[in-house]
Amino acid sequence: MKAIVIEDSRLARQGLIRMLKGFPEIDVMAEAENPARALVLIEQLQPELLFLDIHMPGGSGFDLLNQLAYSPKVIFTTAFSEYAIKSFEHHTIDYLLKPISFKRLETALEKLQDNGDELKQGLAPESQAKPAMKMSDKIFLKDNEQCYLVSLADIDYFESCKNYARIFFEQKKAFIKKSLSAIEARLPGQYFFRVNRQYIVNLNGVKAIEEAIGEGYLITMNDGKVLDISRRNASLLKERLSF
Questions:
Q1: Does 88 or 44 have the greater pLDDT score?
Q2: CB-hemisphere CA count at 13 Å for 128?
Q3: What is the pLDDT of residues 133-179, one digit of tens each?
Q4: Pairing mode, if any, of strands 164-169 and 172-176?
Q5: Signed CA dihedral, 31, 37, 43, 44: sign only
Q6: 183, 214, 211: which is closest to 199 by C-alpha?
Q7: How far is CA 234 from CA 55, 185, 214, 229, in A?
Q8: What's the pLDDT score for residue 100?
């Protein structure tokens, strides 16, 4: 599993990297001392796992995660216990308090393995077990007492809600107990696009793209929903939607 260590303390960063050498299933591709440098490395290397400090110069670990276009797995490494609850708003595997012991790190990596056997396979279990769907495929949705059989082509967008996703279709919505990353692995990539860490959209449902005030762009869906999209992702999206 490809990983990046993000920690402002050089000693703490190098100590963690040394411990991770005891786990050959983890490939530490790079290290960063602040969120700005980490963002560049993440965009270049697309790691599956982040070892992430919270308090750093130039921003917090949470600020960094909110800028990402996808949701890697995260093991937080921090000296502050008060952010533990907030950390689980993200794709958090564990929350390690400094100083980190080898045994505690081992426990965290066991949780990662239990979360989907990624350490053995390097893939999410959904992407191992099932092929990508076709737009003509139908999916079963159950929201409270209401059941739906919905064609993938009729879904407008998916919204991440922690461990669930909310699906919007035909002016209705329903919840499914899947992460957005697991759903993304099954979707046909030529029709669906991850605009930010919270939303995947059906490209056929995009009505307009316009430049936002400040950084990034705004996209408007056919149902009127307006979503933020980074400048980089907007460029990729415009390429997908043009000749």
A1: 44
A2: 9
A3: 788 888 888 776 778 888 889 999 999 886 678 899 988 888 887 77
A4: antiparallel
A5: negative
A6: 183
A7: 30, 21, 14, 6
A8: 92
Closest CA to 182 of 108, 114, 124: 124
DSSP-derived letter for residue 135 is: T
Dihedral, 237, 46, 44, 14 alpha carbons, nearest 10: 150
Question: Hunting for tokens 């035909």 — which residue is that?
Answer: 170
| pLDDT of amino acid 231 | 73
Question: What is the rounded distance in angstroms from the CA atom of residue 243 to the CA atom of residue 241?
Answer: 7
How far are the Cα atoms of 80, 88, 153, 195 from residue 208, in angstroms, in the given order?
43, 33, 19, 13
d(CA 37, CA 58): 10
The mean-pLDDT minimum among 113-117, 183-187, 206-210 falls in 113-117
pTM (two decimals): 0.51
User: Which residue in the block uniquely carries the two structure tokens 């999916």?
Assistant: 139
Q: Please answer whether residues 80 and 36 qualify as being in contact, where contact means their C-beta atoms are separated by less than 8 angstroms.
A: no
Contacts of 236 (CB under 8 A, 6+ apart): 193
List C-alpha distances in Å: 187 to 41, 85, 121, 181, 205.
Answer: 26, 31, 20, 10, 15
pLDDT mean across residues, the chain: 83
SS3 state at 46: coil
pLDDT given for residue 132 in this prediction: 67
**Measured in whole angstroms, how far is the alpha carbon of residue 46 from the centre of its chain?**
11
Give per-residue pLDDT as tens, 59-69.
Answer: 999 999 888 88
For residue 76, give both structure tokens: 């937080």
Higher local confidence (pLDDT), 162 or 33:
33
Q: At 70, list the tokens.
A: 């996808």
